[in-house]
């Protein structure tokens, strides 16, 4: 980190600022330029309160050299993190696909879809039990009954289950019932929830917030990891832009960005990104080609009557054909589905 002082700052103020910055446990070097005095901080600067430093009148600006996240940072953990869920590895050579309906609606629905996606090669079953809906009058999910039905579908098919948590008071139930706990886009910055999940050792699928920057996204991962839970899988699901044709804008460039900045696996959700079923295939293919570590795809046996997100759900037959194509694309990248 560098702290640039204003023009014509007096010697005693330079010494005072140096002392303040040393108080954070960093080594501080004073560089006297022609017009500016620059204080260079070396060591662990993650505890330095930038806003406080900027409040000093003698400070012109503060610039970070190092990213504010440590545990999620590739600089301190060069090798890829591989999250092992029931023996299925996410972040390694395999590219697992998570598939299933937006919401669990009934026993018949979830079991039938689970059997279909399993036969097509999906590695996990998804299904929302607690749904974060924009309108309080929309279907809110079957809640605890939904969790029971997911467990039933897991028993029938052997597919591990992924479902979204919305509040910290459900953590114990999720830890015992679910294989991957999903944190939805709307809760990416629910820091209390993230802290509590950090105390567990369950794999967490952390979705990118609606308007979150890459740095904010990684800081949310850092919240979970700071508590000791390093089993974090990132998920890009589209972000808000000026474009309204699609539900969100799929930011595929986040894949190489995350690969550079972090060691955590990143998967893509083409369903919520585009919000249109006919875009799921091209966006899935592009994601695998761009190096995604997995996909999460909404599949419904009767999208026209789905209680949530039918417009972006593909039918099992389409999913099956898609998986065949994805296998070929993964092979080009020396990966397997
Ligand atoms: C979901 O996966 O069902 C969901 C609600 O996604 P998101 O949080 O990305 O909107
Ligand atoms: Mn959905």
UniProtKB/TrEMBL annotation:
Transmembrane segments: none annotated. Keywords: Transferase. Residues 87-326 form the DAHP synthetase I/KDSA domain. InterPro entries: Aldolase_TIM, Class-I_DAHP_synthase, DAHP1/KDSA, DAHP_snth_FXD, DAHP_syn_2. It comes from the Bacteria. Its EC number is 2.5.1.54. SUPFAM superfamilies: Aldolase. The keyword Transferase applies. Residues 1-67 form the DAHP synthase ferredoxin-like domain. The keyword Signal does not apply. This is 3-deoxy-7-phosphoheptulonate synthase. It comes from Clostridium neuense.
């Amino acid at each position: 980190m560098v702290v640039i002082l204003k023009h014509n700052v007096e010697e005693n103020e330079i010494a005072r600022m140096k002392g303040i910055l040393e108080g954070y446990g960093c080594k501080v070097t004073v560089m006297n330029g022609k017009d500016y005095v620059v204080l260079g901080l070396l060591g662990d600067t993650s505890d330095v309160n930038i806003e406080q430093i900027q409040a000093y009148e003698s400070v012109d600006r503060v610039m970070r050299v190092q990213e504010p996240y440590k545990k999620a940072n590739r600089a301190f953990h060069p090798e890829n993190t591989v999250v092992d869920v029931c023996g299925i590895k996410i972040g390694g050579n395999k590219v697992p696909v998570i598939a299933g309906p937006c919401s669990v609606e009934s026993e018949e629905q979830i079991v039938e879809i689970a059997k279909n996606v399993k036969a097509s090669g999906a590695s996990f079953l998804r299904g929302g039990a607690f749904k974060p809906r924009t309108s309080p009058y929309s279907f809110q999910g079957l809640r605890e009954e939904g969790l029971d039905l997911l467990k039933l579908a897991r028993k029938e098919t052997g597919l591990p289950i992924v479902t979204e948590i919305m509040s910290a008071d459900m953590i114990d139930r999720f830890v015992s019932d679910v294989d991957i706990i999903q944190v939805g886009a709307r809760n990416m910055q629910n820091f209390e929830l993230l802290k509590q999940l950090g105390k567990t050792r369950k794999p967490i699928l952390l979705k990118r917030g609606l308007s979150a920057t890459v740095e904010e996204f990684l800081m949310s991962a850092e919240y979970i990891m700071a508590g000791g839970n390093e089993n974090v899988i990132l998920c890009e699901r589209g972000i808000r832009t000026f474009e309204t044709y699609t539900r969100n804008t799929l930011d595929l460039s986040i894949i190489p960005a995350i690969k550079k900045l972090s060691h955590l696996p990143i998967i893509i959700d083409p369903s919520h990104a585009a919000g249109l079923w006919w875009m799921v295939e091209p966006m899935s293919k592009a994601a695998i080609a761009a190096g995604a570590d997995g996909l999460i795809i909404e599949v419904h046996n009767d999208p026209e009557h789905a209680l949530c997100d039918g417009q972006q759900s593909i039918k099992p037959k389409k999913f099956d054909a898609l998986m065949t194509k994805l296998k070929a694309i993964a092979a080009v990248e020396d990966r397997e589905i």
